[in-house]
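Per reviewer request, we include the raw input and output of the structure prediction for the construct analysed in the revised manuscript.
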Amino acid sequence: MGITAKELAKKMNLSASAVSLALNGKPGVSTKTRQLVLEAAEKYGYDFTKITSKADAGGTITFALFRKHGAVVADTPFFHELSEGIQNTCKEKGYKLNITYLYADESLDKQVEDIQYSDCVGLILLGTEMSSVDFKAFQKLAIPLVLLDVYLSDVKRDCILINNLQGAFLATNYLISRCKAQPGYLHSSYPISNFEERADGFYKAVRVNGMSSSKSVVHALSPSVEGAFADMAEIIEHKEELASCYFADNDLIAIGAMKALQKAGYQIPEDIAVVGFDNIPMCAYVEPSLTTIHVPKYYMGEMAARRLFDILHAKNFVPVKLEVNTNLVKRRSV
């Protein structure tokens, strides 16, 4: 049996990424190192057909969900639409799709290494919960990679994400125009970059309308229906100050908060108006239906896959940041 790339890396005392780059003809290693790797691979019986099969259409694309706080799960409408866009584009191009979780723990380097040495030819990484520090494990990955739902300014990889600032501004501006009042903010208690960008959009709308940012009532709620319900119920029980209208970081927070407010006897939108973000299917079925920001989730997944295929076949690579605009969906919660 011939040697594997992983075994070859150990035998030559080189990094796994260096050997992979050399074997696959990718930039990032010197001509001398590349030649040494190729000679050693031939000497020890490396199966070069593996390289050919990975380069041809019909390889495997991995869609990985990076989990750190637990806010990102596969069993959500947001994820289903993203993955459907990726799945259909892979099918169209003749590639298989593998969906997996990657966990931010001590085994992350091993998880990334397993991807490197699998039949994976490209990675779409859902980095909603990711920071630049978290990306270090992926830095030397020698396959094309597209980041989805996050932008990391110091990471030279393609990023496909929502125009969070534009969407939050749109929602908050509408809330102010309808309610003629200082809006409150239902902010995620989890530190996620998307939500920080939405905070920028919220406060920008407040300032544009001549209001003081410091006067907005802010509640930190868990980004799930159950978590937001419990957090908001506690806020009401403690008789904390409530606003007459709220922008929420996502629909799950908005719906959970609405349920807690209704249980406490508040009418929506007569007493308190609420607007969310994402436009998940549940928005149309809660009572009252939730005004929210629509995110073209299928299109984001499709864009991520198409960009990955462009990189796979490109001779030169220049990373790009692509932001997808949003639009307001008016329903009865405002």
